[in-house]
């Protein structure tokens, strides 16, 4: 066999040829290396979609061109021979955007923008295959794309502008049209017809560029004539082969029997990177036609083993139409379960054979292949003859990670038989997130009945109950011959299953009780589904309504907004984000997109593998021998102070003597490339002496492990309040951590200059912080360090201090080597190193009167700070300030205990302690309501603050609009009516329950440290009349720069397109405060405004003398009179003077208030849930930009929903982290948002606030309202418990994961499946 060694493909319409490419190179690495940096690295495991591109290929047999979206981070470059690669740059640019790019940008679907190219390319791939998709298809195409900023709604709205007019019913009982809303963006949008516009202001309607499919990039004609040839590429470590037919594959397998077969690389790529498993010889099988063929046979379906999951889905759809109804039970079940298989991008490349050979214990395919008695055809080459042997699926897998495939064999075909008469097959799956998540437990259940409904044969296969997918032979044998539909038989079958699946408390994967309940839940659903389908018995309505899984319809949303202040020309208008179009076209530059400079090197951080240990020795000798490595640096190499924290002094740049958590930085390897640096990093040997470690709050309390400060806040006489109370209750509640999961991980580029000068580019929240710290670390003055921030791909508090880990370490390397050094953390590195939202434990005691007036509230909360201080004490202080929530309580005592543990050092996160404090308070109110019998909403309303009352920190509430905001939400959400409807639904559904929750929030806006409430700006007017503004704030997606442009345009009375903003930099605006706490627009906006006012006053005489002249002419006249056309603006927040020790003085300039009502539905047999509807109203004052603020409201709310539901951080007992990426850590996806999502701005907003244009900060407050989803779930659980005569208060820890929802229902199944902890057992994972 003769092999070629030249890779040929097209990239954005241009032919590319590469001689012997490195088999290790991914398509992502290649396209970025040639300057196409619009495609982003988000996770490197195919879980976030930031790297999505489109691959087009031609099938000569079918004479068909196919277009698929793929994850470039997993796709091997070597696999694209003969294909056309299209990246974000290939479809449009700012001057001529593709309709998708234009609509996503102008409909506010891009905030930080890092994920935007991936979303564009997912939608692009869809419409290239189907120019007229349904709305449901438009939503589903994003199941492999994550966004942390927008809350998804505007992205989905933009996608639906390409959809046809097919209406998809979502099953909701109400059709609600708000007074006025944004609509979908179509000029004839149905949502904008017949709407009263007496108050609300419409987002501008846009005449979009029409989509014309004939104008797309054509598939290169030369590739249609291209004849593929066998290829062989190699590097020093890997041999890569590409056969083009089955005979060539079998020959190669005979020659290299231990070679790894690769197609989609969705598994091999991940284990190679994250588990360091090497595959020295790889054979790519993605271009072998014989392995992709399929056939409808008389008795079943034959599928080529290398068909992708997407191709299988298409064939299954055809099969369901080809065969008779009784023959398609297996095909329908497989089709349904594959909808939830991973994501579109993964389904497009992952193959049947890959999943079968991987033999994952939670495979979505294997249970059905087992229970359907599928047959596998194994083929090999013996001598020169091809030999095949059929193997039944039940015999193929022989154990954990074992099968009967011989080393020279390949899996050629899979035969799936048709179902028989009276055979019923169903597939079930429960995962952490409903879509795009691997199963916790799944099942394929099959039963054949005779004419008397007796079981002839049963196959029960379960995934997630052992190290491999297994059957339940005892249950299968028991049910044989029994009558289906007999309730006593079901009870006995459940008992047999409980005995058959014995899990220990410490079982791998954890969740022992939950996993057993899922087995029983699936069997219960199957039992009644078959009973109904076989017409064995008529089901009661409450059971019949509950047997399927929760179905989600197409989402819809409305945004009812206020008008700009009268007289404003640009401030208040809902213009799109200034960088949105650049972000949508991939032209926006982030840190790692900055072009490489001559001699630039790459840094890789060496981190601790121990939770707590002394460092005995560091040996980099083997790493330094690797060709291309330029140096290793550790604590001894720091020329100045070895401290990278700008707030405390216990965080070292490089750990010198002791490490306090896994992931703490110990050293830096610097090499020519990222690949070399990371390989060398793993060769650095560190000798430790392990010390005892603490992971949880409970362990910290037990061992009295705290940081020095214990903040407190008190008012009145708590003990006297308890004496006067009719009721006194005590309890405790816990909230979990939350990973920031900004889409752009921490990145930095440090460039040494002459005379010990340094330039640093970093993705941080405060340009002054890297400047200050690098100067101190290097022992130079701050005036020699310039810190620049162009934009940040999301932050949410996580880059306030943690970005310094990277920039300070690189600075040390750059100091010694005098070369530029760059580093962008991989997702797992970033998560392991940088810390999260603080977990809280709240222990409360409350006293109240019989009529519900709260008299005293005593709260002690404990927060897990991790290994170093960071901002933990400040988070505790802010938590104290928020602990009163929205309620007047005359006597309070709040104490915060910052716990010192050995997990990563936790840090600031959107809300900064307030979400946890509010959660504790609202949990207390729910429990008190349940114990007293007082309705929880009545309890809230009786204790709501009113105008003029004082908070525990003695701030008088003026301009207090919360009661009105709360009432507005109560009315527009039809709360009382829907409350009754929920009760009726719950009475009619046995295993489906709904819950409803209405909550208010207040959020104080100002930094607690008065000195931080200041900002500067610099404004230049050039002779052509153009304006350049600079300020100290950072653009992280929130639209700060856009608002600054609006403010400057308004103040100078010039068109906004003549105003420009380049970046934030310390040589332009000095001593900036961190962009955080929802203060960015307040502080920097006034600074810009003040600078512009100075210039306006200077130009006023010329405008008066030259009323008919253009601004350019006026500016030139002033210039010729030697008028200074540059001005510095400064602002400090007035009246802020709180003294913590004396508890006096004003803490906050104002409060942003809001309220929301959320309704959910849960499945009590699985713990699954969906958000049916959310109504939310926020008091924005007079918004600077209603569109941007709505984006912050929606995005903040969805981030809060994630914290409250699916986002769970888990550590192993040794301190290592399990949840290091999107595979294990699940943020909300596009199909997790409320099915009906309604946003309102408060109608009675005041205009006398001392903020810029009477606007209010909105970045953080909406996150707190994510609690409404948690408490709606709690409400639904309460309803489920009442059905089982369980009236004890619900104890539910946040987040409300499917496991916790199911266990909290506390029914007979849970009791039967309970797995008790035995002596000596430890949990598999721990939540800190």
Relevant terms:
39 helices; five-stranded mixed beta sheet; alpha+beta; globular; flavoprotein; metal-binding; peroxisome; single chain; 45 strands; 1328 residues; xanthine dehydrogenase
What's the shape?
globular
Output the number of helix runs: 39
Overall pLDDT confidence: 94
Structural class: alpha+beta
Helix percentage range: 25-40%
* Distance from first to last alpha carbon: 58 Å
Q: How are the strands ordered across the major sheet?
A: 24-26-22-33-30-31-32-41
How would you characterize the largest beta sheet?
8 strands, mixed
Count of beta strands: 45
In what range is the share of β-strand residues?
15-25%
Uncertain segments are 165-203
Give the C-alpha Rg.
31 Å
Family: Belongs to the xanthine dehydrogenase family.
Cofactor: [2Fe-2S] cluster; FAD; Mo-molybdopterin
Subcellular location: Peroxisome
Binding site for [2Fe-2S] cluster 1: 43, 48, 51, 73
How do the strands and helices of this protein lay out in sequence?
Elements: E1 6-11, E2 14-19, H1 27-33, E3 52-59, E4 64-71, E5 84-86, H2 99-106, H3 116-129, H4 135-140, H5 153-160, H6 221-224, E6 231-234, E7 239-242, H7 246-255, E8 260-262, H8 268-274, E9 281-284, E10 294-297, E11 300-304, H9 309-322, H10 329-338, H11 344-347, H12 352-358, H13 366-371, E12 375-382, E13 385-392, H14 393-396, E14 397-399, E15 402-403, E16 410-417, E17 423-431, E18 439-449, E19 455-463, E20 470-471, H15 473-479, H16 487-500, H17 512-533, H18 541-544, E21 556-560, H19 580-585, E22 601-607, E23 613-619, H20 621-624, E24 629-633, E25 658-659, E26 665-671, H21 674-681, E27 685-690, H22 697-702, E28 712-715, H23 718-724, E29 727-735, E30 747-752, E31 758-762, H24 768-778, E32 785-789, H25 803-817, E33 821-824, H26 827-834, E34 840-848, E35 854-866, H27 872-882, E36 891-900, H28 914-932, H29 936-943, H30 962-972, H31 975-987, E37 992-1005, E38 1014-1021, E39 1027-1031, H32 1040-1052, E40 1059-1061, E41 1064-1065, H33 1080-1105, H34 1111-1120, E42 1126-1132, E43 1150-1163, E44 1169-1178, H35 1186-1204, E45 1236-1241, ...
Parallel strand pairs: 1-5, 7-9, 8-9, 21-45, 22-33, 31-32, 35-36, 39-40, 44-45
Antiparallel strand pairs: 1-2, 3-4, 3-5, 6-7, 10-11, 11-16, 12-13, 12-16, 14-15, 17-18, 18-19, 19-20, 22-26, 23-25, 23-27, 24-26, 28-36, 29-34, 30-31, 30-33, 32-41, 34-35, 37-43, 38-39, 38-42, 43-44
Helix pairs in contact: 9-10, 15-16, 16-17, 17-38, 24-25, 27-28, 32-33, 33-34
GO molecular function: 2 iron, 2 sulfur cluster binding; FAD binding; iron ion binding; xanthine dehydrogenase activity
Binding site for substrate: 800, 912
Organism: Gigaspora margarita
């Amino acid at each position: 066999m003769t092999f070629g060694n030249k890779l040929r493909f097209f990239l954005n319409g241009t032919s590319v040829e590469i001689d012997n490419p490195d088999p290790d190179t991914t398509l992502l690495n290649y396209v970025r290396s040639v300057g196409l940096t619009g495609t982003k690295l988000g996770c490197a495991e195919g879980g976030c979609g930031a790297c999505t591109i489109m691959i087009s290929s031609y099938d000569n047999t079918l004479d068909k061109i196919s277009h698929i979206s793929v994850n470039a981070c997993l796709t091997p470059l070597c696999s694209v021979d003969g294909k056309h690669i299209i990246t974000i740059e290939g479809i449009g640019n700012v001057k001529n955007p593709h309709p998708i790019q234009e609509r996503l940008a102008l409909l506010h679907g891009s905030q930080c923008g890092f994920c935007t190219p991936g979303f564009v390319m997912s939608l692009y791939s869809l419409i290239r295959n189907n120019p007229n998709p349904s709305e449901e298809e438009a939503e589903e195409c994003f199941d492999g794309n994550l966004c942390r900023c927008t809350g998804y709604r505007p992205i989905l709205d933009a996608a639906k502008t390409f959809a046809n007019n097919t209406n998809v019913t979502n099953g909701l009982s109400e059709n609600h049209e708000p007074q006025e809303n944004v609509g979908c963006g179509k000029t004839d949008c149905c949502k904008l017809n017949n709407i009263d516009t007496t108050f609300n202001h419409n987002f501008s309607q846009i005449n979009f560029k029409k989509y014309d499919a004939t104008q797309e990039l054509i598939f290169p004609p030369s590739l249609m004539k291209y004849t593929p040839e066998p290829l062989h590429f190699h590097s020093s470590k890997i041999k890569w082969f590409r056969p083009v037919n089955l005979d060539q594959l079998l020959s190669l397998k005979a020659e290299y029997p231990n070679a790894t077969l690769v197609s989609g690389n969705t598994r091999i790529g991940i284990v190679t990177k994250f588990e360091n498993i090497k595959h020295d010889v790889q054979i790519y099988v993605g271009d072998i036609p014989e392995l992709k063929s399929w056939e409808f046979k008389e008795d079943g379906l034959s599928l080529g083993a290398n068909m992708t999951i997407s191709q299988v889905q298409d064939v299954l759809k055809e099969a369901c139409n080809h065969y008779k109804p009784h023959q398609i039970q297996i095909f329908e079940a497989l089709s349904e379960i594959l909808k939830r298989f991973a994501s579109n991008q993964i389904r497009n490349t992952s193959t049947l054979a890959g999943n079968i050979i991987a033999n994952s214990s939670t495979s979505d395919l294997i249970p059905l292949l087992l229970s359907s008695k599928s047959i596998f055809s194994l083929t090999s080459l013996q001598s020169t003859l091809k030999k095949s042997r059929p193997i039944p699926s039940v015999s193929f897998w022989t154990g954990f990670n074992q099968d009967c495939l011989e080393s020279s064999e390949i899996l050629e075909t899979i035969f799936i038989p048709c179902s028989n008469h009276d055979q019923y097959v169903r597939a079930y799956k429960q995962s952490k997130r409903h879509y795009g998540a691997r199963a916790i437990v799944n099942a394929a259940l099959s039963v054949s009945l005779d004419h008397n409904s007796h079981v002839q044969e049963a196959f029960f296969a379960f995934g997630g109950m052992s190290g491999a997918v297994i059957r339940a032979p005892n249950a299968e044998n028991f049910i044989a011959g029994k009558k289906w539909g007999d309730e006593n038989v079901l009870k006995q079958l459940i008992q047999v299953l409980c005995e058959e699946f014995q899990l220990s408390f410490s079982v791998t994967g954890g969740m022992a009780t939950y996993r057993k309940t899922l087995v029983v839940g699936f069997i219960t659903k199957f039992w009644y589904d078959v009973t109904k389908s076989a017409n064995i018995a008529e089901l009661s309505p409450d059971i019949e309504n509950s047997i399927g899984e929760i179905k989600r319809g197409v989402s819809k949303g409305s945004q009812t907004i206020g008008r700009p202040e009268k007289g404003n020309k640009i401030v208040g208008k809902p213009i799109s984000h200034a960088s949105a179009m650049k972000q949508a076209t991939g032209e926006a530059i982030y840190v790692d997109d900055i072009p490489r400079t001559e001699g630039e090197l790459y840094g890789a951080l060496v981190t601790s593998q121990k939770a707590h240990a002394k460092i005995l020795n560091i040996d980099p000798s083997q790493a330094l021998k690797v060709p291309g490595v330029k140096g290793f640096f550790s604590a001894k190499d720091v020329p100045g102070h070895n401290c990278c924290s700008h707030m405390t002094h216990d965080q070292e740049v490089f750990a010198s003597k002791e490490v306090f958590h896994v992931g703490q930085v110990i050293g830096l390897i610097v090499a020519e490339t990222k690949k070399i640096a990371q390989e060398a990093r793993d060769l650095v040997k560190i000798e430790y002496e392990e010390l005892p470690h603490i992971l949880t709050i409970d362990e910290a309390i037990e061992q009295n492990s705290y940081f020095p400060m214990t903040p407190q806040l008190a008012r009145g006489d708590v003990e006297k309040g308890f004496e006067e109370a009719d009721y006194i209750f005590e309890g405790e509640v816990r909230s979990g951590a939350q990973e920031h999961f900004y889409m752009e991980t921490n990145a930095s580029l440090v460039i040494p200059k002459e005379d010990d000068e340094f330039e640093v580019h970093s993705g941080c929240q405060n340009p002054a912080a890297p400047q200050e710290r690098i100067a101190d670390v290097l022992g130079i003055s701050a005036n020699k360090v310039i810190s620049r921030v162009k934009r940040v791909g999301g932050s949410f508090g996580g880059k306030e201090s943690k970005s310094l880990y990277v920039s300070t370490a690189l600075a040390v390397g750059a100091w010694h080597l005098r070369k530029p050094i760059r580093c962008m953390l991989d997702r797992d590195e970033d998560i392991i190193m940088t810390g999260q939202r603080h977990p809280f434990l709240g222990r409360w005691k409350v006293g109240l009167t019989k009529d519900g007036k709260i008299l005293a509230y005593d709260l002690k909360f404990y927060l897990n700070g991790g290994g170093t201080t960071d901002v933990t004490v400040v988070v505790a202080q802010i938590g104290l300030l928020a602990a009163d929530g929205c309620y007047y309580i005359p006597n309070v005592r709040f104490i915060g205990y910052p716990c010192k543990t050995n997990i990563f050092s936790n840090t600031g996160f959107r809300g900064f302690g307030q979400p946890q404090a509010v959660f504790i308070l609202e949990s207390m109110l729910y429990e008190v309501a349940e114990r007293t019998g007082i309705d929880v909403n009545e309890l809230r309303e009786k204790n709501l603050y009113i105008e003029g009352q004082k908070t525990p920190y003695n701030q008088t509430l003026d301009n207090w609009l919360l009661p009105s905001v709360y009432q507005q939400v109560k009315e527009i959400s039809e709360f009382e009516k829907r409350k009754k409807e929920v009760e009726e639904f719950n009475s009619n559904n046995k295993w489906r329950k709904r819950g409803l929750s209405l909550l208010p929030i207040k959020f104080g806006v100002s930094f607690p440290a008065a000195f931080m409430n200041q900002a500067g700006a610099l404004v230049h007017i050039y002779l052509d009349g153009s304006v350049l503004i600079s300020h100290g704030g950072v653009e992280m997606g929130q639209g700060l720069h856009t608002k600054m442009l609006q403010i400057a345009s308004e103040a100078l009375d010039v068109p906004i397109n003549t105003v420009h903003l380049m970046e934030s930099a310390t040589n332009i605006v000095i001593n900036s405060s961190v962009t955080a706490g929802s203060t960015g627009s307040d502080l920097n906006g006034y600074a810009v405004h003040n600078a512009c006012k100075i210039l306006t006053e200077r130009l006023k005489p010329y405008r008066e003398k030259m009323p008919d002249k253009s601004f350019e002419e006026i500016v030139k006249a002033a210039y010729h009179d030697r008028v200074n056309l540059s001005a510095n603006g400064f602002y400090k927040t007035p009246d802020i003077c709180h003294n913590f020790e004396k508890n006096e003085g004003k803490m906050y300039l104002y409060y942003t208030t809001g309220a929301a009502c959320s309704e959910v539905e849960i499945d009590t047999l699985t713990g699954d849930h969906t958000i049916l509807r959310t109504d939310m109203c926020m008091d924005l004052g007079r918004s600077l930009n209603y569109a941007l603020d709505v984006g912050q409201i929606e995005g903040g709310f969805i981030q809060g929903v994630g914290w409250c539901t699916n986002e769970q951080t888990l550590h192993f007992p040794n301190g290592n982290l399990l949840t290091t990426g999107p595979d294990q850590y699940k943020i909300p996806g596009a199909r997790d948002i409320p099915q009906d999502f309604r946003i309102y701005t408060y109608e009675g907003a005041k205009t006398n606030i001392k903020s810029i244009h009477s606007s209010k900060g909105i970045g953080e407050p909406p996150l707190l309202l994510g609690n409404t989803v948690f408490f709606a779930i709690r409400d639904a659980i309460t309803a489920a418990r009442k059905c089982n005569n369980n009236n004890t208060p619900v104890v539910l820890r946040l987040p409300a994961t499917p496991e916790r929802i199911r266990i909290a229902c506390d029914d007979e199944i849970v009791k039967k499946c309970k797995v008790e902890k035995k002596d000596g057992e430890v949990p598999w994972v721990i939540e800190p």
